[in-house]
Automatic annotation (TrEMBL):
The chain crosses the membrane at residues 6-28. The lineage of its organism: Bacteria, Pseudomonadati, Pseudomonadota, Betaproteobacteria, Burkholderiales. The keyword Endoplasmic reticulum does not apply. This is Prepilin-type N-terminal cleavage/methylation domain-containing protein. InterPro entries: N_methyl_site, Pilin-like. It comes from the Bacteria. Keywords: Membrane, Transmembrane, Transmembrane helix.
Length: 282
């Protein structure tokens, strides 16, 4: 008869107690490290979201129509910035070609004189289509919103060899501001006549949002009540601030936009501040 060998009940209990003690010690040692790792990952995620949101806003502002950026403060919890976006731009013919007088002459755009057709000296992007808008020499901030220096594209033709890269025909004769000598035009997409970023902050916690609002017909005057919409740029907002300072002068040739954004998720919070110089020369 073979004798069976094994552990007694007492031995098993002793082993279980020892393993439990060791596991408890390991948990106490590893738990802070794991919590720290999760907190760092959470803060890194919030930082990435805030950085992407601020860079998106600044990137669009830098390509906007000069002198179109305006700021509205509705309340301590709500504020917004509005600007007119662009999709293309280039140079237009300001005078006849006196060097090659024997070549066919193109259509010029003279500020202060009604114009229906003008030639471009640079290629127009294929994304520019009829009903898009052309703006020239936006010196005063609210002119582009009121449509003072804006024409609507009817057709885009060309290129015409030795004459023009493209020929733009407007729906109606448009008089662009007199005295402008920059020779540059910008194209505004018809689907986005203006863009507004609205920040809504809660009284506490990270339940606020920044939304991007577009697809509306802009008003000549700035917003008194900031608009809202479903297109959320970033959520979990606990703090935000839009500050815009223009340099002094008739054309506000430059400005400085400062953005502050704070995000909160659970017990973790991050705050980023980002600024950008805004070129306002038409």
């Amino acid at each position: 008869m073979t004798r069976q060998r094994g552990f007694t009940l007492v031995e098993l209990i002793v082993v279980m107690l020892i393993v439990g003690i060791i596991a408890g010690v390991l948990v106490l040692q590893l738990r802070p490290a794991m919590q720290s790792y999760l907190a760092i990952r959470q803060r890194a995620n919030l930082t990435s979201q805030a950085d992407a949101a601020l860079r998106r806003i600044i990137g669009e502002v830098r390509t906007a129509v000069p002198n179109s950026l305006r700021y509205s403060w509705e309340s301590q919890q709500t504020q917004c910035i509005e600007f007119v976006p662009t999709k293309d731009g280039g140079r237009f013919r300001t005078a006849q070609d006196y060097t090659n007088v024997n070549q066919p002459q193109g259509a010029t755009l003279v500020p202060g004189v009604p114009v229906t057709t003008f030639d471009t000296l640079t290629d127009v992007d294929p994304t520019v289509v009829p009903r898009d808008l052309v703006v020239v020499g936006n010196v005063n901030r609210d002119d582009v919103y009121a449509g003072t220096d804006v024409g609507t594209i009817r057709t885009i033709a060309g290129p015409t060899p030795n004459v023009a890269r493209n020929t733009i025909t407007l729906e109606t004769a448009t008089t662009f501001p007199a005295g402008y000598e920059g020779g540059r035009f910008l194209v505004i997409p018809q689907a986005e006549r203006a863009v507004t970023y609205t920040c809504t902050m809660p009284t506490s916690g990270g339940t606020g949002t920044i939304v991007r609002v577009t697809g509306y017909t802009p008003n000549a005057a700035p917003w008194k009540t900031c608009p809202t919409g479903p297109a959320i740029l970033v959520a979990k907002v606990s703090d935000c601030s839009f500050l815009y300072h223009e340099s002094q002068g008739a054309t506000q040739q430059s400005g400085y936009l400062q953005l502050r954004l704070g995000l909160t998720d659970g017990d973790e919070s991050v705050t980023l501040t980002m600024g950008a110089h805004v070129e306002n020369v038409p």
